[in-house]
C-alpha cells in the first residue's frame, strides 16, 4: 500500500465519523402544531381523541393529553382562571374536555385570580417544563399558541392576561367587571348567560362594546345562569372548544363557527339568545387563504 493510500484510509474513516457526528447533532425537524385531526363535524362538544391526565402542583393544575411525551406534535396552551373562591376541580369537566381535544391546560389554583398572576406563572412553568429534557412535556408544548380563559372573576383575569404578549386569544366566560379590555391586543370571544343574575349580560356586553380595537364576538347562551359552566359545562363545551381550535390550531371547520356570512353560532338560535360581531370580526373570512 502506497503512502497516499495509507493516508487516505484513516482520512476516509475520520470523514465518516465527523459526518455521523454532524448528523447526530443536527436539529430535528420541527413537530407540527396544528390539530391532530381535522374536524369531521361541528360537534365540538363531543369527546376529543386524547386520553387525559391531571397533575396538581402548588400553583398550577395541569390537564393534558396523557401520552404527550410520545406525541408527534406540539400542543397549544390554555391558561385558566377560577371564579371567586373556586378551584380548578370545580371546572374539571371543561378543562378535561379541552385536554381531550389536544390542549395543555394550565389552571391557576388560586381562588382569587383577578390579577392574572398565577395564570402567567402557568405559562412560565410550562416554558420551563418544555425546555427540560427530563420532563414529559419536553418539546411537546406549543408556546407560540396560547389562549386565556376563565369564569367570573377568572373571566376578568383572562381579560387582564390578554395584555400579555404571549397570549394569542382570550375567551372570558361571564367575566367580572375588574378588567380593562382596552389593553387586550388579540381576538376575543366574550360569553354571557341569558339567565345570569350575578354577572348580568349587559356587563359582558360592556366589554364587547369597548373592544372596538380588536376582533371581538359576544355570545349569550340561551337559558344559562352563572353556574351552568360549573361541573358539566353543558352548552359551554362546544363553542369554547371550537374557538380555541380555530384560534390556536388553525381548524377551518371550527373557524366557520365564528367567521364568514354563515357563521355557525350566528344561525343557531336554539343555543344562542344573542350573538354579536364587531366590524373587525366581520372582516375576517370563514376560511384562511392558502
From TrEMBL:
Keywords: Signal. It holds the Pfam family PETase. The keyword Signal applies. PROSITE patterns: TAT. The keyword Magnesium does not apply. Residues 1-22 form the signal peptide. It comes from the Bacteria. Residues 96-260 form the PET hydrolase/cutinase-like domain. InterPro entries: PET_hydrolase/cutinase-like, TAT_signal. This is Acetylxylan esterase.
